[in-house]
Amino acid sequence: MTDIKKVHKTDNGNTLAIDAANGGKLKIDGSDVTAAMIAAGSNTGTIVAGTHAVTSGEETAGTLDIDTGLTSITAHFVQVLSGGAAATADAAISASGGTITVADGAVTLDLAENDVIHWIAVGGL
Predict the structure, then answer these.
(1) Distance between CA 37 and CA 76 in Å, rounded?
(2) What are the φ and ψ backbone dihedral angles of 111, each rounded to 5 degrees?
(3) pLDDT (tens digit, 9 = 90+) per residue, 71-110?
(4) Which of 17, 41, 48, 54 gives the lowest tally of CB atoms within 10 Å of its CB?
């Protein structure tokens, strides 16, 4: 998996980040939210993150699976960047076991080769 320092800056200006220099703590606008997420339901508090570049085969299929390395996922965040712009609006995103599935949306998102998917998952090992 790839270390990610800045994952996404939302439209309303909030920054979601993984603080790789501080044990991988999840931060929103600089505030550590790791403990709050653990208290809210993560049974182990394990947070993993990475990036995935869409392949030509995944583009053709219109779907892809990301193995997070977790056995179960209690929360996840996914951001699809197409041509450097956020394209997640109607993406079909789901999680089962330790896998996040990203698929073409109903209207606007068509996964394309070299689109970049940034993801964060919280769950059990």
Answers:
(1) 11
(2) -55, 135
(3) 999 899 999 998 888 888 889 999 999 999 999 988 888 9
(4) 41
Considering the entire predicted model, what is its pTM? Answer: 0.67
DSSP-derived pairing of the beta strands 31-32 and 46-53: unpaired
54 pLDDT band, cuts 50/70/90, is very high
Note the Cα 100 to chain centre separation in Å: 8
CB 100 within 8 A of CB 66: yes
- Name the residue among 10, 15, 19, 122 with its Cα closest to residue 76: 122
Q: Which two tokens stand for residue 74?
A: 């209690």
- The four Cα atoms 19, 22, 28, 32 give a dihedral, to 10 degrees, of 170
Residues in contact with 54: Cβ distance below 8 Å, sequence separation at least 6, in sequence order: 64, 111, 112, 113, 114, 115, 116, 117
In this prediction, residue 17 carries a pLDDT of 65
